[in-house]
Amino acid sequence: MTSIRAIDGNDSTDERKKLVDYALEGFDVALLSISVNNDMYRQRQQNLNGILETLGHKLNTFGHTYEIEYAFIGMKDDGCYDFRKQMNRTNEYMLNKGMDGLMKKVDDLAEVVKIVQKNSSIPTILTIKLRNLKENTVGRLVFIDLLHPRFSQLTKTHDKLYDSFSKLRNAVATITSDKSAKIDLSNTFLTKEMTKYISGHNKLVIFAYLNDIISTEMQARETRFLLDFVTSLKDVPVRMLPNPTQSQINEKLYKMQMARSVQNIEELTQSLAKARNAHSDYNERIAIERKKVSYRIYGNYRP
């Protein structure tokens, strides 16, 4: 059973609640918004606000049970823009740090809502980390808005994320054709950030915003490409697992440290044994040299 679904821009209250509930229960879930044209801003903003409103209501019912962190960036082929810090981030920085490296703790979800209300001219990723202080679980609610990326090279002129999106599409094609294939994550932040969602390790919901009327051949071609892209993702089986709790993480770290300590003890024991053998050899050589000295002085050397 797949958890990757394509739905239209008319919103889905059920999908909103499912996404929010999964994140609150300790899963990482993502929502991908994508369209052919640039005239769908109002619809996608309404959908984002609806999910944030649902999350806000849920958090209010839990009181102070959850700790909230967030990061919000804009993406281009040559780097990212940190909206919170209002500064550029290099691709290398983002590949090393990821969204978790930009997180800020907030007391109220309203601060997150306020910063995402501004209309962005470039694709964005909003990640909200939700830590349950009682259960010690951590879930993430991720909003990836690719706006209206170009599929065809003929239309890529003004697309600031064309190369990154092409690599993401190649990664999806690789995954859907060979489940055991490895994806190159060394140079594309968008692909690295989305790998666990497009590979079926976490839930991904796609909101595809399509026009009722297609007036040009270019729009028809791009619409076909978008539908093919979404359809390929629907074929990816999903096996969701919750994120480990902090206790589980601590236990894993403890076991790793213990294993490392045991290995260090074994290596030191081997080194000590070699040193003792070497010391024994040195004692034998010293004894021989002393006998030689004794012979030269007293003439009583016996090898």
How is this structure best described in words?
Helix 1 crosses helix 2 (41-62) and helix 5 (162-177) packs parallel to helix 6 (189-198). 48% of the residues lie in helices and 19% in strands. The N and C termini lie far apart (83 Å). The model is unreliable at 1-11 (pLDDT under 50). It is of the alpha/beta class. The chain has helices at 13-24, 41-62, 91-97, 109-115, 162-177, 189-198, 217-234, 246-298, and strands spanning 5-7, 28-35, 66-76, 79-82, 87-89, 104-106, 124-132, 137-145, 203-209. It has eight helices and nine strands.
Parts with pLDDT < 50 across at least 5 consecutive residues: 1-11
Number of folding domains? 2
Quickly name the level 1 CATH class of the largest domain.
Alpha Beta
Order of helices and strands: EHEHEEEHEHEEHHEHH
- Give the CATH H-level superfamily of the largest domain: Kinesin motor domain
Shape: elongated
How much is the average pLDDT? 82
Q: Give the termini separation.
A: 83 Å
Radius of gyration: 29 Å
Strand content: 15-25%
**CATH architecture title of the largest domain:** 3-Layer(aba) Sandwich
Q: What is the count of β-strands?
A: 9
Classify the helix fraction into a percent range.
Answer: 40-55%
- Summarize the main sheet: 9 strands, mixed
Tally the helices: 8
* CATH fold descriptor of the largest domain: Kinesin
Structural class: alpha/beta
